[in-house]
Automatic annotation (TrEMBL):
Coiled coil: none annotated. This is DUF485 domain-containing protein. It comes from the Bacteria. The chain crosses the membrane at residues 24-47, 59-82. Pfam families: DUF485. Keywords: Membrane, Transmembrane, Transmembrane helix. The lineage of its organism: Bacteria, Pseudomonadati, Pseudomonadota, Alphaproteobacteria, Acetobacterales. InterPro entries: DUF485, Inner_membrane_assoc.
Amino acid sequence: MVQSDHQRILGNPKFQELVRTRSGFAWTLAAAMLAIYLGFILLVAFAPGLMAVKVGGGVTSLGIVLGLAVIVSAFLLTGIYVQRANSRFDDLTRDLTKEIV
């Protein structure tokens, strides 16, 4: 009985849509974060002069600003994922639950 329920859920088109949609979106955001981080690391490695440029009249360098931008982008991408999870993914999960219960 349990195995047939498991197979029924795995074979459900709404479940497959949920998994496909969620995985695709998660991989997209992961690739975006990887590109942001890799870009920052490449700038550190190959453009240290650019990263050392002072911003404004103070002692803060462009590297510090870009490093903070990497951290802020991680929070923003997390927020985007949470917003999507609380709207689209929850709707898909709710529809799936109604169908299988």
